[in-house]
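REQUEST
  id: r-88c1
  op: predict_structure
  target: Proteasome lid subunit RPN8/RPN11
  payload:
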Amino acid sequence: MAIAIRLTRAQLDQMIAHALEDAPIEACGLIAARNGVVTEIRRARNAENSPYRFSIDPLETRRHEEAIDAAGAELAGFYHSHTGSPPIPSPTDIRMMGPFFGPPFVHFVIGVADRANPEVRAWYIQDGQPIEQEFEILPG
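RESPONSE
  id: r-88c1
  status: 200
  body:
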């Protein structure tokens, strides 16, 4: 399996920290990258304010996309947390965000049911099915 995206441990830790801080509400955000390497993790507000689903207000998404463009990067994907279930896209995730989970967008799901041992997995959604992707943690 090819590597879908590369990021630093600090960037991965940013997503995990956000997930832990927002629990029991699902955390969510956007991922900026250049040439398949993450340049920035951008926290968003979960408009659903729910432990079972998330959404990002379209106007907030637009502001993030404009900042990503201004920085010379591109929107590479999204992340969200699961506070009580494994880090696998749920049927609700697939239904609500399906078009935005698939290639070229990578979607990280951070499982924080075991707060001491968060689990992070990356996905594409193709034809309504989750397909796990590899990611590489870079030095630095």
